Amino acid sequence: MDKYIEEQSRIIKARVENKPVLLLISGGVDSTVAGALLLKVLDKSQVHLMYMDTGLMRKNETEAVRAILEKLGAENIHIVMAENEFLSALKGITDPEEKRRVIGDMYITIQEREVARLHLPQDYFLAQGSIRADFLESGQGGEKKTNVVKSHHNIASPLVIAKREAGRILEPLASLYKNEVRELGRCLGIDEEIVSRHPFPGPGISVRILGEVTKEKCEILREADAIYIEELRKRRSKSGKSLYDEIWQAFSVLLPVRSVGVDKSAERRYGWVLALRAITSADGMTACVYPFEMHDLLEISSRITNSVKEIGRVTYDISNKPPATIEWE
Q1: 236: closest CA among 187, 295, 175, 304?
Q2: DSSP codes of every residue in 33-52
Q3: pTM of the full predicted structure?
Q4: Per-residue b/e over 177-200, b at no fewer than 16 CB within 10 Å?
Q5: Quick one: the chain helix, strand, coil %, rounded to 5?
Q6: Which of 20, 186, 254, 283 would be a feasible disulfide site paired with 177, CB 3.0-4.6 Å?
């Protein structure tokens, strides 16, 4: 990774020279590592880090991202509140690929508006935390054409493709898999808590809400998922590690199904069905289901249904990759 940093330093400096670079950052591992690399290679005044609160983020994500970027030493941090715009654009859309396309285009549309507001010059570079797996799953694996598993908004969006073809995109992690990105992050001095954070999709929880995305569904899923992750952090495996650290990726999915149940007063009610996902993997290209102890699942499920009244039933996804993908959409 030390050699990788040296190589990328030469490439980035030669391409960028003294021009500004704008990185769209999500707070996830990939974009955070990309940001740390740019801040190391370039003058900090050249690097603009833009985070959009799309309304599709995890609980308290915006505050956490701001703290991370400040700790990296960033001078130019731009927080854009855009929940209403993203949710309005997603209204009525149920197809997963269409969700990804709409979100990808919305990112670029808002980014271009903000660039004008910030008065960045026309020749600025757009940087992304795209990694090798993103290209492979989007059917852009190199010289040999590969099948599209799912389109990544930062790869297959028409506006992103146009910018890439114009040579105005920097993707310094494009040849790395997730485990390598984590190692690069450690070499750059990023805190282990951030480097070991579970992957989070660029389109956010929109692809963890099956069917149409609404503000109400986002709030339900955000709260349930926060409980799930909190429980994983405090529970220990037989090895003594937290379940969160033993699991490569864990998250909740809100299904487009209501199931009959009863409340504490024995009254009949319909509640949403929530699916829990937890997998182990090295690079995300293949994955195995995490073998929970049954008492952990029972207690986590009970806390979620007792705390989030809109959820009436919890299931656990036991599908490996392949045949299933890690995300549901």
Answers
A1: 295
A2: HHHHHHHHHS-GGGEEEEEE
A3: 0.83
A4: bbebbbebbebbebeeebbebbbb
A5: 45, 20, 35
A6: 283
Q: What is the pLDDT of residues 140-158, one digit of tens each?
A: 555 555 555 545 455 556 6
Amino acid at 13: K
**Token representation of residue 308:** 């989030």
* Per-residue tokens: 223: 């709260």
Joined together, the tokens standing for residue 198 give 């579970």
For 103, phi then psi, to 5°, come to -65, -45
CB within 8 A of 134, min separation 6: which ones?
152, 154, 155
Burial class (CB in 10 A: 0-12, 13-18, 19+), 39: buried
Q: Which amino acid is at 290?
A: Y
* Model pLDDT for residues 41-83, shown as the tens digit of each residue: 999 999 999 999 999 999 999 998 899 889 989 999 999 999 9
∠ Cα 63 304 54 (to 5°)? 35
Q: 114-139 burial string, b = 16+ CB within 10 Å, else e?
A: bbeeeebeeebbbbbbbbbbbbbbbe
